[in-house]
Amino acid sequence: MADATTRMQFRDPARARALAARLAELVDALGRPVSVMHVCGSHEQAIARFGLRALFPRGLDVIMGPGCPVCVTDAPEIDEAVALARQGVRVATYGDMLRVPGTAISLEEAGAEGGAVESVYSITQAVELAARHPGEQVVFFSSGFETTAVATAAAILAGVPPNLSVLSVHKYIPPAMEIVAEMPESKVEGFLAAGHAAAITGADVFLPFVERHRLPVVVAGFEPLDILAALVRLVELIRDRRPAVENAYPRCVTARGNVPAQDRLWRVFQTAGGRWRGIAHIPNGNLRLRDAWAAVDARRRFQIDVAGLWDGAPAAHAERCICGDIMAGLRRPSACPLFGRECTPEAPVGACMVSTEGACRIWHTYGGVPDLREAS
Amino acid sequence: MEKVVQRIGLKHGSGGRAMRQLIEEVFLELASPVDGIGLAALDDGAALRIGDRWLVITTDSHVVQPIFFPGGDIGRLSVSGTVNDLAMMGATEPLGLTCAVILEEGFPRADLERVRDSLRDTAREAGAPFVTGDTKVMGKGELDGIVLNTTGVALTDRIVTDAGLAPGDLILVTGHVGDHGLAVMSRRHDLGLQGDLRSDVAPLNGLIRAALAAGGDDVVAMKDPTRGGLAGALHEMAAKARVGIVLEEPKVPIRDEVRAAGEMLGIDPLVVANEGKAVLGVRAAAAERVLAALRAHPLGAHAALCARAVADRPGQVVLDTGLGRRLLAEPEGELLPRIC
Lengths: 376, 340
Description:
Distance between the termini of chain A: 36 Å
Oligomer: heterodimer
Strand order of the largest sheet of chain A: 2-1-8-9-10
Radius of gyration of chain A: 21 Å
Number of domains of chain A: 2
Helix content of chain A: 40-55%
Number of strands of chain B: 15
């Protein structure tokens, strides 16, 4: 199998140990602890799945930042979809979105109340759903970073049934990196950028960020050796005080990226400011439909009455949930008193335990403790 | 603290932490002292002293959707499950099996005969005669097709439990892991995966007899990694023996197609059910001897030494991925393919 060959190549233990040794040398030579951040659930999955933190030198902290688009979807955005479901609109969305808490209830609870809420794997399925229910209004509640937004854009450009509209809560990652870099508590000295998003945007999309914040960015793939090699490069750039963008995933990513995909993305979407759950207001952090696509924009097709949801509603947020701090990279899931006890994938309290891209969910799935560096 | 659940969920039947907790909270009440291994041990079966021998008893109910799946069916599953539970206690020569069947109104007779044939053939393969049975029918919609219950009894001179590990012991698995769970799941969700995903369902008493003949008293613990998979079995063995277990992932035999299906579905082959595999804890000195005996048997050709018991982290399982290390989570809840 070609798949097996690739796996061998990028999961080779001897090479991994060599890269880990190099990483240890670099951090040793620096003579101080280093914190770096990645902004992608798939990176966290690979790090946790393969137990890579046990391989990292003690002085290196690799933190997951706001890399889960489902988790950063803010409660009022969930409320919009809930309100639509209560207004009799059929709401289709990715399965991960169903249990994300809104201000009062989640979409799953809106479904249990009798609302028409369906999970789909892609916008294509939402298009099929609308075609099957021509007499109904169907809304695709679309979440995801720029990778997923391209798929939404392509479907809109190809034309959707007249009874389908899009409620976009797509997020755009580069502005969020800026906010996290500017947080006064942040110790982050460099970023790993997500290879799949960069395959679309191109590695050069991070140049303005590097220029402004004087922090290096290395684009990384998702196999263990991809991550280790990118970390080596990132720590070298930190050592050399050289803020630059480097592409450690050249088999998929180019400097300019996928230009036709970018063209589709920006023909349909424009950036807008908005709150990311638990983190901050992120200028340009949201992707909203352009005026030219007002006809398929659910926010313009419907009067969405979210205020009605808020009257007298008890807050669904648990006060002790520290999702916001976790997504900002300030605290670890294991620092949360709810983690693995009151908050589990079966009964999640915070959004980070809901989505398979969320830090809490990933840590819980892969053993619940950050690393075994202390184990014999 | 976790909430006390008032309704039973599917997770309470999936072999993980939720099920163990339910059994401990609800059924442990039924346990009373016996001369031997009783309910309180929560082992694969019970063992009662009869003179200087042991009578081993086990019972198992079987539900599976679909009832016919690649590599087996509910009949073969039922006989294998019971015979294997006996074998895991060291009792490899079943005296007799019972068969109780509950059918849904409208169940096709042809399917029932097909299940019967499978029961018969698998029982012959295991050398285990059916000696009594029971039949009930329930109304349409009151159950899903068919439920089979099989009880087995056997005599043995020596009992092997799932609690016998000590630090330094080595742990063997008798073959490829994850075959049954991923075969059934990909069929159930109609995933249309290509390749030959087939259940491993088989009676293991012959294989275990060979291992015990080679290892004797040095075989100190046995468990079949059914629901909850290899991860669940190792967690239980670690908890009961109060040892830590280090599992070396690269040494765990997993077929390429099973690994690929698992990655696609977001399901770890280590947590899905096996129905024709056993996990054996052996004293280090006997490990190679037992491994050779397993490999000489057709059902053990891919047996491997893949874990060891340690004094550190009692009750926990450390997974050495070949790249790094992490804890292996105890399986919980119903396994569902990844949504997106």
